[in-house]
């Protein structure tokens, strides 16, 4: 069964550094999302991406964040200058219809 | 501003009995609702969904009920199995955004 994959599973970085989190959505899906979950808190929407552009973004998704679909298979989330409070699990999701989303296993980002 | 609420952070149920997980929402623009299950160290897994034009949707042991007037939905699992032990997230969509509830941790006791 097709699945969403994410790499790396765990990323440790120093405050102020740039990180790129990678996702490979399910191949025929059209809508792509990033979410995060800070330890002990709820899953929070970051951004949705459709037709090669951002369709929605939350207040969390400020100028430090960007997304790209560089080659038709990968979907990346870049954080330009990480802060301690960016430490969280980051989940990528994709959907064909814009409804049921399929999530990846997540990348645990630790900012020290 | 919690648009999607799951007021029970945890629930324990005996194996074989019914588990009922509740979710309330405030935004009347939500027209599609989903339940996800999440195991530790894994991403959320889609379980079942319901459109606002329906009041019930059933898939095997899982049934979701929607009461639009009360802005309330519930997930029923019957019979509950130990493998159902996980965190369950309710999510709501207005066609563009998805908002997740804080989750309910279900423990099914053997």
Explain what this protein looks like in three dimensions.
The complex is a heterodimer of chains A (112) and B (110). By secondary structure, chain A is mostly beta strands. Helices cover 0% and strands 51% of the residues of chain A. Chain A is built from no helices and eleven strands. In chain A, the strands form two sheets. In chain A, strands 2, 4, 5, 6, 9, 10 and 11 form a seven-stranded mixed β-sheet that branches. In chain A, strand 4 and strand 5 form a beta hairpin. Chain A starts with a strand and ends with a strand. The mean pLDDT of chain A is 92. Chain B has 110 residues and is mostly beta strands. Chain B contains no helices and eleven strands. Chain B has strands spanning 4-5, 10-14, 19-25, 32-38, 45-51, 56-59, 62-67, 72-77, 86-93, 98-100, 104-109. Chain B starts with a strand and ends with a strand.
Task: Give descriptors for this structure.
heterodimer; A: 112 residues; mainly beta; seven-stranded mixed sheet; four-stranded antiparallel sheet; 11 strands; B: 110 residues; six-stranded mixed sheet; five-stranded antiparallel sheet; 0% helix
In short:
The complex is a heterodimer of chains A (112) and B (110). Chain A has no helices and eleven strands. Chain A has strands at 5-7, 10-13, 19-24, 31-37, 43-50, 53-57, 65-68, 75-79, 88-95, 102-103, 107-111.
Summarize model confidence as the mean pLDDT of chain B: 93
Which percent band covers the strand fraction of chain A? over 45%
What would the principal axes of the Cα set say about the shape of chain B? Answer: globular
Q: Averaged pLDDT of chain A, please?
A: 92
In quaternary terms, these chains amount to heterodimer
- Identify the biggest protein-protein contact and residues per side: A-B, 24 and 21 residues
Number of helices of chain A: 0
Radius of gyration of chain A, rounded? 13 Å
End-to-end distance of chain B: 37 Å
Biggest sheet of chain B: strands, sense, closure?
A: 6 strands, mixed
Tally of alpha and pi helices of chain B: 0
- The rounded distance between the terminal residues' Cα atoms of chain A is 37 Å
- Uncertain segments of chain B are none
Helix fraction bin of chain B: under 10%
Number of strands of chain A: 11
The major β-sheet of chain A equals: 7 strands, mixed
Task: Provide the succession of SSEs of chain A.
Answer: EEEEEEEEEEE
Radius of gyration of chain B: 13 Å
């Amino acid at each position: 069964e097709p699945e969403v994959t994410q790499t790396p599973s765990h990323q440790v970085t120093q405050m102020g550094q740039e990180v790129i989190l990678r996702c490979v959505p399910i191949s025929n899906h059209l809508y792509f999302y990033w979410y995060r979950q800070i330890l002990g808190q709820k899953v929070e929407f970051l951004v949705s991406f459709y037709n090669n552009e951002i369709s929605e973004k939350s207040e969390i998704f400020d100028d430090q964040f960007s997304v790209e679909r560089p080659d038709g298979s990968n979907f990346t989330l870049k954080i330009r200058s990480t802060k301690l409070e960016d430490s969280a699990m980051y989940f990528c999701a994709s959907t064909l219809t814009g409804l049921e989303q399929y999530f990846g296993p997540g990348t645990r980002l630790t900012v020290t | 501003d919690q648009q999607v609420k799951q007021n029970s952070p945890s629930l324990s149920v005996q194996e074989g009995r019914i588990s009922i997980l509740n979710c309330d929402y405030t935004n009347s623009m939500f027209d599609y609702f989903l339940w996800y299950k999440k195991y530790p160290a894994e991403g959320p897994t889609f379980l079942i969904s319901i459109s606002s034009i329906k009041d019930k949707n059933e898939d095997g042991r899982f049934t979701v009920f929607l009461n639009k007037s009360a802005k309330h939905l519930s997930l029923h699992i019957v019979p509950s199995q130990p493998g159902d032990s996980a965190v369950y997230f309710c999510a709501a969509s207005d066609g563009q955004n998805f908002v997740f509830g804080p989750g309910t941790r279900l423990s099914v006791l053997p």
